[in-house]
Design brief:
alpha+beta, globular, about 350 residues, 13 helices
Amino acid sequence: MARTAMQQDWLVDAAAPREAEAHAAQEEVRCLCGAGSDSAVLTAQDPEARGIWTYRRCAACGLERLSPRPHIEHMGQHYPDDYSPYCDPAPQTASRADRLKRLAYETFFALPEERSDTARRYRPLLRLALWPLRNHSVLSFHPPATRRVFELGAGSGADLLEFRAAGWEVLGCEPSAVGCAAAARHGITLQQTTAEAAELPDGLSCVYMNNVFEHLHDPPAVLAKARASLVPGGLVVLVVPNHASWAARLFGRTWPGYDPPRHIWGFTPESVRGVLERAGFEAVSVVQKYPLSTFCWHAGIDGYRVDEVPNRRARQVLARVLGRGVILGGMLAAAFGSADFMRVVARKPG
């Protein structure tokens, strides 16, 4: 893939052309803000292939980056066909959690005409009872007047199914043939390509990325493409791991937010705002989002994603003892502005 002029400011080719094969397929990367100094370095292990990779934290903006990283044309080999986002969202009766998320959306974000009888009748009470779940729906943001969404890195199309059920026109892309096939079984046709190569139509009201932005090789170019395709006032909605979270600080390399070489960027609230503002967007909100599963904290405590971790036996016991109680830790972290994930909403001016 040809590199854009925007890439040239922060991308540095890997050095010697005759180095070992592993390094020949990699490239060094500068921070997206353009600064050239790092304040910290962290090594993390690929839980799939078990290789060791290096993250560097920018001294100027706090953004973390994987450097060196694989060239974009080699990234497909790091995503196995059973990668969880490709799993087919088989039709099934909505679970209790799904129904609660839908009710939370109707209570906090939906237009009046979208609300069910229950949401209309008991809305004041529901705002209190469902407050902890308010940010857990795919649709947990105030919808624009027109509803036309393009999802970058749509996986199996599971999130687009929720958009479609809420009356949105849905479009998207996904580089995995397995993911595209799963989406097609549910009537969603995806471009089989990367976010960097996707063709976005004009007139979009939302560009959506759920745990995808941190995977991009060229975030500025993708944001420029999104801005050109959005109507004035259109939204970019991101869900990304929060590298300033309590879990990231407590667990370091065993925290799943460090997932090399798939996770290329490690965002904090401040650094993701900076990336969006430099791309010409107005940051509307950065909301803390804690996981409803035990995965993030259990993985961090247990350390099973890396080969060598101190006190492994004690960590395994602690993870079992805490059980689902770790969700409360995530909720507490969110209350103090340090959750595992962030939902970021930015608007195109106009």
